[in-house]
Design goal:
The protein is mainly α. Helix content is 78%, strand content 0%. The protein has a single domain (13-189), classed as Up-down Bundle (Growth Hormone, Chain: A), CATH 1.20.1250.20. It has 8 helices and no strands. The mean pLDDT is 90.
Length: 196
């Protein structure tokens, strides 16, 4: 009778990446469904058109910059790219918290786009390189499920919190959660990244 193959455990690098993204995106997700209300009701120059512009700024800058960053930086820079990119991302909730004009939000979206553009290609590289050979689809699914459930719950919780304590304090909570996610990345080491 053939021996069953031992189960392959999920890489510690994957676990850290998933935990980091969970904290980061649960934090950022607290106002994901409410940003249009904040822009139109609380900011000078905030209009429905401005909501679309702010979303476009982030998506265009992230989409263009990630190609440039992936081309310019090499594999030795992966850990720095992830950490510095995440550092840029975590500044954005604090800018939103103290914004008085739509132009402050546009600035936050530019920084967010650059941070995501810097971190995304390196994060993907790390994640793919540490997937197990036997069940990569399952590990991607674990990541996607955890993030989906976390951001879904945070969108609901964020709506409740905004009603109780207002946007400014929720943005600050977002920032604290995002910083927690960033700090998890400091547990990654060059040796851990190189070895599976």
């Amino acid at each position: 009778m053939a021996k069953s193959k031992p189960k392959q455990k999920m890489s510690s690098v994957l676990k850290l990446l998933i935990l980091s993204d969970f904290l980061l995106y649960v934090g950022l997700g607290l106002t994901s469904s409410l940003s249009a209300i904040y822009i139109t009701n609380d900011l000078v120059g905030g209009t429905i058109a401005a909501v679309g512009i702010s979303a476009a700024i982030f998506l265009i800058i992230k989409s263009v910059s990630q190609i440039i960053f992936a081309k310019v930086f090499n594999s030795k820079d992966i850990l720095k790219m992830v950490i510095v990119g995440t550092m840029l991302i975590v500044t954005t909730p604090f800018i939103w918290a103290f914004s008085t004009s739509i132009y402050h939000v546009f600035l936050a979206q530019i920084i967010y786009g650059l941070g995501a553009g810097l971190a995304a290609p390196a994060w993907m590289n790390l994640f793919v390189n540490h997937l197990s050979k036997r069940r990569p689809g399952f590990e991607w699914s674990v990541y996607s499920t955890i993030l989906g459930l976390g951001t879904g719950a945070s969108a609901y919780l964020g709506a409740i919190l905004v009603g109780i304590i207002g946007f400014k304090f929720v943005f600050l909570i977002m920032g604290v959660l995002a910083i927690s996610g960033m700090l998890v990345l400091f547990k990654l080491t060059e040796n851990a990244i190189k070895s599976k």
